[in-house]
Amino acid sequence: MNPKKQTAFISWRFYLVLSMIALASFGLVCRVFDLAVLDQPFLKRQGDDRVLRLVSTPAFRGMIVDRNNSPLAVSTTVYSLWMNPRELAPSTSTWTTLGRLIDMKPAALLTLYKRNAKQKREFAYLKRGLSPEVAANLKALNLPGLYLQRDYRRYYPEGEIAAQIIGMTNIDDQGQEGLELAYDHVLAGEPGKKWVVKDRLGRVISDVELVREQKRGLDLILSIDKRIQYLAYRELLQGMTESEASSATAVVLDVETGEVLAMVNVPSFNPNKRPLTFGAHVRNRAVTDLFEPGSTMKAISVASVLESGRYTPDTRVDTYPGWIRVGHNVVKDGKNNGVLTVRDIVKHSSNVGVTKMVLGLPPDHLWELLHRVGFGELTQIGFPGEQSGSLVRHHTWGSFTLATLAFGYGVSVTTLQLARAYAILANHGKKLPVSLLRVGAMPTGEAVIAPNVADQMLSMLESVISKDGTAPAARITGYRVAGKTGTARMALGGGYHEKRYISSFVGIAPVSHPRFVVAVVVNDPRGKQFYGGAVAAPIFAKIMEGALRLMDVAPDA
User: Fold this and answer.
1) What pLDDT does residue 400 have?
2) What's the confidence (pLDDT) of residue 389?
3) Is there a single domain that holds both residue 189 and residue 241?
4) pLDDT above 70 as % of the chain
5) Which residue among 47, 119, 126, 150 is buried most deeply as judged by most CB within 10 Å?
6) Cα distance between residue 364 and residue 17, in whole Å
7) Is 295 one of the catalytic residues?
8) pTM here?
9) Whole-angstrom Cα distance, residue 519 to residue 287?
């Protein structure tokens, strides 16, 4: 080949290769520019979608404490174990080891794994509420596809003693019963959110940005005194056992502030072990269950009689021969008491005496006082499921309907309502709002009974505790006590059962300067005794005596 042609050919090939290299370089530069500048937002978004995650950080739930700041409900750190079935490659020994650590059968774990793997899921809980010690052992296994998540779980130091008041949370730490439910919006706080970078195994590599800081829930300070709550629970449980009753309830009220110092129910349950079913043992029967109060209502009935001005504590009423016909029905006393003063009618709990006095007054006179003291309406205590009771105002009062109302039938109340009514008598006729939260400023209250009538009634109720009254078992050494017994037949199947009763006692102490009201209601005692003076009064005496001494109330007898 001609040397000149050969040189031209080589030069042409050189420039061709050089052009191709330049073109490729230009293409690469354009591509880099496209990726680094033009497509940067898209690519960044795609990368973030693969490694950047917005995660929620759980808020610490506020504590529930008693009036002295003793904890009744606290949150503790626990862990949840979850798996990604796509990453998990378990063996028989793995299931055995895992089952032993989290207290589950290997077969159950295998079934759970297969079901979620078949459905191609990437997330499934294995066990929740694990202790930090168990979580540490699980982490040490270092099994691919198994992950731990930090959570909080509620713990109740007092267990069943305050279970129905405090209530409980579910596995997600959300209030389900009691005050945990009523004040869930206060206790729960606000979970936080943050952006984090995770690797392909779902592990957090680093925090990127805090979106919202978590807010701790507020603490709830109750009016409950843990010491009195325990005392009331212990004595109520013992009394229910001795009387062979089906259940029992007690409420302790502070007369001066309207605070609930104790509210107990037996049988109870342990809120640290969530029940599978929510039966009667979970209810706070002091505010959810209604009953006919029987003769405990006579304190209000006699107060209405005194308010009329036609009777005084010493007015004499003839109850001979121990029964009275009212319409087509007969009202009876346990025996013929003859002529009684109004004071003695209260002392001996005479149905005939109360009936004669109430029927001699305008029909609405008794109803109006019952309404003023709070029967037939909610106490506004803020407890979930509270019942208002039943207080019917008849357009045309039948004599027998009015008579039975006077001694506690035809009206349904809660234990808390009954305790509040007696607190009005103890507080010189002033009605205070009742509260399950600790009260800061002293409430003013509303006068619903004339002070002189309330004081006269308190004096008459003191005679009930005397040796020849209906409740000598309610006496407390060193203290003056006033109160009233109640024994009402249980309403069953459209009528009243002949041999099943509700036994109750509501008392006030010390009479010289009333401080506490204690109401005790025992349902269906099946032992040898069923009268309120024999079943409920002794329980009252033990609870009241303990409360007086715990709160350093000076003796007045």
Assistant:
1) 92
2) 94
3) no
4) 91
5) 126
6) 115
7) yes
8) 0.85
9) 12
Residue 50's pLDDT is what? 57
178-182, 204-208, 371-375, 517-521: lowest mean pLDDT where?
204-208
Share of the chain above pLDDT 90, in %: 62
Res. 71: pLDDT tops 90: yes
Can you give the CATH number for the domain in which 369 is found? 3.40.710.10
Q: Select which of 268, 295, 301, 304 is catalytic.
A: 295
pLDDT-based confidence at 59, cuts 50/70/90? confident
In a domain, residue 28? The reply is no
All residues at 6 or more sequence positions from 113 whose CB lies less than 8 Å from its CB, including other chains = 83, 85, 88, 90
Residues 395 and 514 reside in one and the same domain: yes
On whether residue 164 sits in a domain, the answer given is: yes
Structural domain of residue 472, as residue ranges? 226-550
d(CA 539, CA 536): 5
- CA–CA dist 286, 263 (Å, integer): 7
Rounded (to 5) percent helix, strand, coil in the chain: 40, 25, 35
Read off the pLDDT of each residue in 13-38 and give the average, rounded to a whole number. Answer: 77
Q: Please tell me whether residues 212 and 280 are part of one structural domain.
A: no
Q: Packing angle between helix 132-141 and helix 92-102, nearest 10 degrees?
A: 170
Comparison of pLDDT for 55 and 294, the residue scoring more: 294
Contact 512, 557 (CB under 8 A): no
State whether 275 and 393 are in the same domain.
Answer: yes
* Residues 542, 537: Cα–Cα separation, whole Å: 9
Type and span of the H or E element at 82: strand 71-83
**What whole-number distance in Å separates Cα of residue 531 and Cα of residue 334?**
12
Tokens of 351: 């149905």
CA quadruple 265, 266, 270, 271: dihedral, nearest 10:
-20
Whether residue 182 is found in the same domain as residue 83: yes
Q: Are strands 52-57 and 192-198 parallel, antiparallel or unpaired?
A: antiparallel
pLDDT one-digit tens code per residue, 458-499: 999 999 999 999 999 999 999 999 999 999 999 887 788 888
Same-domain status, 530 and 402: yes
Type of residue numbered 405: L
190: tokens are 């606000």
Alpha-carbon dihedral angle through residues 355, 361, 362, 367, given to the nearest 10 degrees: -50
Q: Which two tokens stand for residue 233?
A: 């629970």
* 42 within domain boundaries: no
Predicted pLDDT of residue 8 = 60
**Surface-to-core class of residue 184, CB atoms within 10 Å of its CB (0-12 exposed, 13-18 middle, 19+ buried):** middle
Q: Which two tokens stand for residue 274?
A: 């969530």
